[in-house]
Amino acid sequence: MTVGTTAARHRGRPTESGDDDLERLFDVLHLTPVVDRPVKELSQGRRQLVSVARALAGRPRVVLLDEPAAGLDSAESVWLGHRLRAIRDAGLTIVMVDHDMELVLEVCDRIVVLDLGRVIAIGTPDEIRNDPVVTSAYLGVAHARQELKA
């Protein structure tokens, strides 16, 4: 199944080559160059974006993404972050659960940090980045020392 067919079927209707909404979605997600390729031929990063495209094909106002950076290397995660910010900037609310703190800090406006199921911080990316409890739990002591030097 191709990328275009996968997203169109998630919309609940057959593929239509002139579907402007899907074309805009593919443009925002940078999937236009691969729209006619089978999903199984794509990199893991592009497969993650195809999953996002499926979720967005139904035109939700809010989308929940569970571990969108799972299996991605740091370069792919940065690339995914750029695409997710473009989606967010287009007016869609993204609720994201992810362990990739850099991705979360770059994409999210408001963050709730859990440690072993307990809320340890709530705030903006800057507040979370500078929270000593979060730094200790997720970013490590070395990161905290670097922040103090800066």
UniProtKB/TrEMBL annotation:
It comes from Gordonia paraffinivorans. Its EC number is 3.6.3.-. InterPro entries: ABC_AA/LPS_Transport, ABC_transporter-like_ATP-bd, BCA_ABC_TP_C, P-loop_NTPase. This is Lipopolysaccharide export system ATP-binding protein LptB. It is an enzyme of class 3 (hydrolase). It comes from the Bacteria. It holds the Pfam family BCA_ABC_TP_C. Residues 118-144 form the Branched-chain amino acid ATP-binding cassette transporter C-terminal domain. Residues 19-69 form the ABC transporter domain. The keyword Transport applies. Keywords: ATP-binding, Hydrolase, Nucleotide-binding, Transport. The gene is lptB_3. One of its GO terms (molecular function) is hydrolase activity.
